[in-house]
Amino acid sequence: MGLYNLLLVELKCPRCLAHAMCEVEFKLGLLDLQRYRLGDTLRWAGGYRNKPPRRPDGGTADGEGYTECPRCGKDFWVHVYVREDQILEAWPDPDRPGYIA
Predict the structure, then answer these.
(1) What is the pLDDT of residues 40-71, one digit of tens each?
(2) Which residues partner with 91 through β-bridges?
């Protein structure tokens, strides 16, 4: 099992359309199972595969995350948007299908 971080964020599930607090697994920054919320400063170091192995220029990176809706149990992918080391936004990726049918 690979390491990741968690982003706690309210999202609208693209599968059931319910709004719910989700735990989004994402692989940006120091991968140490840290819990973040929007507006938090991301700690950089480490990285994963093609993700930045250290702080990128300006602390700017776009990544992806994965979560399951706590309402319907279906999964979906999430865009994670980091600028100047701050986790600013996260939104569902409507074009990428989940694994759970």
Answers:
(1) 999 987 545 555 567 888 999 999 999 999 99
(2) 79
| Contact by Cβ (8 Å): 67, 25 | yes
What tokens were used for 69? 């809706």
Q: For 5-39, b where at least 16 C-beta lie within 10 A, e where not — what string?
A: bbbebebebbbeeeeeebebbbbbbebeeeebeee
**Cα separation values, 27 from 23, 36, 45, 50, Å:** 13, 12, 11, 10
Strands 5-12 and 35-37: parallel
pLDDT tens-digit readout, 10-39: 999 999 999 999 999 999 998 889 999 999
